[in-house]
Amino acid sequence: MNDLIEQAASDLLESRYAIVLTGAGMSTESGIPDFRGPKGIWTTDREAEARAYERYSLFLRDPVAYWEELPGRKGTHGAFYNVVGRAEPNPGHYALAELERLGVVKWLITQNIDGLHRRAGSVNVTEYHGTVHKLRCPACGSRRPLEDAAPENLPPHCGCGRAMKYDVVHFNEPIPPDVMSEAEEQALKCDLMLVCGTSAVVYPFADLPRAAKLGRAEVKVIEVNAEPTQLTQEGLSDYHIRGKTGEVLPGIVEALRKRSRGPGSSLPE
Prior knowledge:
- The chain is α/β, with parallel strands linked by helices.
- The chain has a domain at 2-31 and 89-131 and 175-260: Rossmann fold (3-Layer(aba) Sandwich), CATH 3.40.50.
- Helices cover 42% and strands 14% of the residues.
- The chain contains twelve helices and nine strands.
- The strands form two sheets. It has a six-stranded parallel β-sheet, with helices on both faces.
- Strand 4 (134-136) and strand 5 (143-145) form a beta hairpin.
- The radius of gyration is 19 Å and the shape is elongated.
């Protein structure tokens, strides 16, 4: 594994425009449960999974009922939001923020809705599936802080007059156009994509590595994940570093710093 960490550091230093994709594996290391793992929220509570599939249609049908269900944060689904509220960024989050600070990583696209990348210090972030910390208007796309959803005045309304929902993208809800466009632009611009903690099975997010590689053999895709994924099995990734993101990513930062020390280094201290 150490050789691959060194290789990743070298590839990142040589890249022109490196971006990062992250998934649930980043969050589980901060104590946030996943949904479909062996002990995932929906694995252990099928009723919660069924409700999740109905949430977007409930909003479209009855925004008041949608908000009456969500603010109380009842049951297993509610426990997830409570855990998110207490979670802290882990070393993997801080390592990616450091790579951005050093100018090595230009952009980060995450499936995670917990906001931990921003809390760790990452600035150029696309939250592909939204965030629990904001409201969004499906009609005009504007966003506001979640605190604007006053319990005594639900549903919250946008300046355009339409009801607002959680910024989180629910099942059967389209990815917001601005998010989709931004993510695709970054995927097509990059010459290196670091894919961290995602099984690459949730679409359309999982199409981003394929879009980056399509017709561009020079683009490198590096996986950091506890287990091989479809990207590994299809040979889409150039190599796979098997391990926890909270251990591998700080290792890459340290290896990168060692390689860049000395006269002529362009990295900030």
